[in-house]
Amino acid sequence: MNMSAPWVSYYHKLVALFGKDPSISIIYDNDNVEIKMYVEGQSKAEALTELLPSTVDYGNVKLKVTVIPANTVSPATLFRNAFEGNPVYEEMIVIKPDGSTNPYTYLMFKNEVVQYWDDNLGDPHGNISTLAQNIASEVFGDTKGVMFSTEQE
Q1: Is 97 or 27 the better-scoring residue by pLDDT?
Q2: Is the per-residue pLDDT at 123 higher than 80?
């Protein structure tokens, strides 16, 4: 006879309720007696966190239920949010060329010189004169598909 432990049955119940939802992935970790639910969408993750118990007590076994919100915010959205309201930022341009699977995302900065002091011996005042796009490239490094550019005149 093949009997499931009650914590495994609980996992099967969650799969029956949420397993067909494309925004939820459910994994049972037998070694740690834990169910992990990876959930896309902040509101859905918050709802499940509130509604589901964080542990289910089966006497000598405590099943842990963890809802893990997926990081569904794209790097482009993060950059847009980070620069929103900043006077050096102009706009974001997304271009999807024909035949390309991924779009090109450009964070556009104002067409103006940015100047800051940096002990530059090549300037009588010690300033560096550059563009915001150059500073952003240095500060952020690899930007996962977001490129920095300057608006045209």
Answers
A1: 27
A2: yes
Chain center to CA of 117 = 34
Q: Under 8 Å CB-to-CB from 91, ≥6 apart: which residues?
A: 108, 151
CA angle 1, 32, 68 (to 5 degrees): 115
Convert the pLDDT of each residue in 35-87 to its tens digit: 999 888 888 888 999 999 999 999 999 999 999 987 666 788 788 888 999 99
Q: Domain extents for the chain? A: 6-69, 75-150
